[in-house]
Design a protein that fits this description.
The chain is about 10% helix and about 30% strand. Helix 5 packs antiparallel against helix 7. By secondary structure, the chain is mainly beta. A four-stranded antiparallel beta sheet has the order 1-28-27-26, with no helix packed on it. A four-stranded antiparallel beta sheet has the order 2-3-4-5, with no helix packed on it.
């Protein structure tokens, strides 16, 4: 089931002969150098499989300084880590200093989103039911001054059942973020508590399970990875949900925040759906769905799991999909968990990375080879018909991680334009791989959104289409795709060299559109930064508001400060006025 040095040497030769022009990125392990030392621990006895599936990891710019920060869940008795980006490629843990205390929570999934729409990302931290009484999920609202306030009880989202996946999205397009919490349940329960909550607009949630959506299909739902994401381009987020033991589900939004479960649409054939990733791998303008699962190349069923591996569902439109797993060449990911679509080599094609492994605490794993699974990196060859679409290149790229991997995020941690990788390990160390590709400025663009009024914070639910030299690349702003994790809300684009980007088109969830032409590459483009009055344009009215604010004639809300802080210094000053004026003229 595992491959020795001779096979790995041969794979290098085969890859070289087979891929030709496919450029292999190079990663270097820089965990300690970056200050990201972390060990997942718990003070509880491991009595359930659920405890062997954490911990989650999420990414977001929590202090709005222009650099992405990292939140990592820990086990019972140990606080989470909030690694604040120092802006120089290193991080410092500020969890305790910024009033985060998850020591009572046997941490699992995490989402980093702006729940209360004050402009600063909040943290929704889920937990496992590893002891009784169960400790409720926590909601940390970001006050914007390097401080969080825990408001779980007041929010109505402080659930006390196992939380294996979370996702936020605006299901009814009313401008705030609703929530889905997935529960795996465990073998001692006959039901799953997977639930949907609507937001009343101020960060207070109401459980609408059974009203807006029905997860009960006559059998227990072993929920892992829900994602609120628009898959038929009608602006309303649908709900695909990867779940264990053949119970994955696909729910289509009816256009009013209620959902209908679809079956027979080419999805949910995965035997043990764990993690999810969404991306336009074939550049046809819609999102495809990748689900991690369990692959055993000897074909022998050695436990209560399947053996047929991952699935890649190609989006054919109108909620119809085709299974292209074998054409793509991405079935064998061993015992899969977290995954991400990302363009690691800046050729305009989305690659795939996933982590994997499973170690039973009893040491009685029927197939111990799962305990040393290597992470997988599939590079997109651009062949979408005859295949293989992807070629595995983790060894050649230096992505050397084996063991019990769980959460995975791809992020530009140092703002150099390429995407790095962070992976968590159950009862093991976090590992950080820095991408050494270092693309030239004419090979990349990243986009952050400041949504106009009436849309969800950070433009969650919006799509972004970047056209370069006549070729278009499609991204969507999605909360929490993956396993127990949160990918960046900042959209990343790689492409062949271009002196200028033809256009950047944002389709907002409310149906309006913003078009920018002749955009310079090699930057983090903050669309609508400076739009204080949230009317989807930056003009003299915003400048006059900023002057009134700086003179003390108008109070400044947190949301307004985030928008007008053009130099991302954390304060409103003359430098912001100058940058705002330059943007207007």
């Amino acid at each position: 089931m595992r491959y020795g040095p001779a096979f790995l040497f041969l794979s290098v030769l085969v890859l070289s002969a087979k891929t030709g022009a496919v450029d292999i990125p190079s990663f270097s392990e820089q965990t300690n150098t970056a200050g990201l030392g972390f060990l997942h621990q718990t003070d509880l006895a491991l009595t359930s499989e659920g405890q062997m599936m954490s911990s989650g990891v999420g990414v977001g710019d929590v202090n709005r300084d222009g650099y992405l920060d990292i939140f990592v869940q820990n086990g019972n008795g140990y606080n989470a880590k909030l690694f604040i980006n120092n802006g120089d490629g290193t991080f410092t843990d500020q969890a305790s200093a910024w009033n985060i205390n998850t020591a009572g929570l046997d941490g699992s999934a995490v989402s980093i989103i702006d729940i209360d729409n004050n402009g600063y990302p909040d943290i929704y931290a889920g937990g496992l039911v590893s002891s009784l009484p169960a400790f409720p999920n926590q909601v940390y609202l970001n006050s914007g001054n390097n401080n969080f306030v825990e408001t779980g009880a007041a929010s109505g989202a402080d659930v006390t059942y196992g939380t294996y996946g979370t996702t936020f999205g605006d299901i009814d397009l009313d401008g705030d973020l609703d929530l889905v919490v997935a529960d795996w349940g465990g073998f001692n329960l006959s039901i799953s508590f997977t639930s949907m909550f609507t937001n009343n607009g101020s960060g207070v949630f109401t459980n609408v399970t059974g009203v807006n959506v029905d997860f009960d299909n006559g059998a227990k739902l072993w929920g892992f990875s829900p994602t609120l994401v628009d898959l038929n381009n009608d602006r309303y987020p649908d709900l695909p949900l990867a779940a264990d033991f053949g119970t994955s589900q696909y729910h289509a939004n009816n256009g009013d925040g209620t959902f209908t479960r679809l079956m027979g649409n080419g999805t949910t054939t995965d035997e043990n759906g764990m993690g999810s990733a969404f991306g336009d791998y074939d550049n046809d303008g819609d999102l495809d769905w990748f689900v991690t699962s369990i692959f055993d190349d000897d074909g022998t069923v050695e436990g209560n799991w399947g053996t047929t591996g991952n699935r890649l569902y190609r989006n054919d439109g109108n909620h119809q999909f085709t299974d292209v797993t074998d054409v793509a060449g991405v079935r064998n990911g061993y015992w899969g968990w977290g995954a991400s679509f990302a363009d690691f080599n800046h050729d305009g094609l989305l690659d795939l990375v996933m982590t994997n492994g499973f170690i039973l605490s009893s040491g009685s794993n029927p197939d111990p080879t799962f305990e040393s699974d290597p992470d997988r990196l599939w590079l997109n060859t651009g062949d979408f018909t005859t295949g293989p679409t992807y070629t595995e290149a983790s060894v050649q790229a230096g992505l050397a991680h084996v063991g019990d991997g769980k959460g995975l995020v791809a992020l530009d941690s140092d703002n150099d334009g390429d995407l790095d990788i962070v992976t968590t390990t159950n009862l093991g160390a976090l590992i950080y791989f820095r991408n050494e590709y270092n693309p030239a400025p004419d090979r990349w663009l990243q986009v952050e959104l400041f949504a106009p009024a009436g849309n969800a914070p950070d433009g969650i639910g919006a799509t972004i289409d970047v056209t370069v030299n006549g070729t278009s690349y499609h991204r969507a702003v999605i909360s929490s795709p993956g396993f127990m994790g949160q990918q960046p809300l900042r959209a990343h684009f790689g492409f062949p060299a271009a002196a200028m980007i033809d256009s950047v088109v944002v389709n907002w969830p409310d149906g309006t559109q913003k078009v920018l032409s002749n955009v310079s590459p090699g930057q983090v483009l903050r669309i609508n930064s400076g739009d204080i009055n949230q009317n989807d344009k930056v003009d003299i009215a915003d400048y006059l508001l900023a002057i009134r604010m700086i003179l003390g004639l108008k109070s400044v809300t947190a949301n307004e400060l985030v928008r007008v802080d053009m130099n991302q210094s954390g304060v409103l000053d003359a430098g912001d006025l100058l940058l705002l004026l330059r943007k207007i003229i």
